[in-house]
Structures are given as C-alpha cells and as structure tokens.
Amino acid sequence: MLKGKQRAYLRSIANTLKPITQIGKEGVTESFLEQLDDMLRTKEIVKVTILESAGLDAKETANYICEKLRAEFVQSIGYKFTIYKKNIKNPKIIFPGHEMAKAKKRDNNTTKKGKPTKRSSR
Q1: Which of 1, 57, 66, 116 gives a 20 to 30 Å CA spacing to 23?
Q2: pTM of the predicted structure, to 2 decimals
C-alpha cells in the first residue's frame, strides 16, 4: 500500500511518461496482462491508454488490473491511468528518504569535533 507522499512522488514521475500500451476493443486479455507484468518488472511504473472504442472506465480498469497483477494504482486522468509495481530484486525507483545509509568516513588523526589528536602530532 502506497502512502500519500509516495503516490505524489510517483505521479511526478508519471507526469513526464508517455503511455506505453493501449487497451482496445478486446479489453483486458490474458496476453495483455502478461505483457504489462513484464513491463512492470523492467520499468516499475507504466502508463496505459484506453481507446475510446473500448468503452471501459479508466479507474475501474486500472483497479481490476492492479488486483490481477498485485500492483499499485497511482492515478487516472481521462482515458489514461498509471500503475506501479515494485521490483524487489532490482528496484529502479527509490522514494525520497529511503536511500541507503552511507557509512561515515572517519579520519583517525582528528577527534569528533575536528581537532587534531595527540597521536597525530607525534
């Protein structure tokens, strides 16, 4: 489950994305779900367009797809929607504040306050 700030961050990423796939007259098929799942594994975030001739509601379709693929719904605007699925093995999107902690480099010749130690003057 995404939190509000995470969803907002994903929306900011999705703002620059162009739709990758389309849903046509046939609707959501098994082959479409397989292709979308492969795309989500590689890209983690995908924008999809629903053609007007399909006659599907974007939000309902997105929720159905998210349920089938165990993905997260990000947003829906008009006939387009965006979904996200985290790649556990090789994550591409790292949320702000979730970066890996870096070990501090410590110089043995200075104290914690930055003053030279007695050993360094010998």
Answers
A1: 1
A2: 0.75
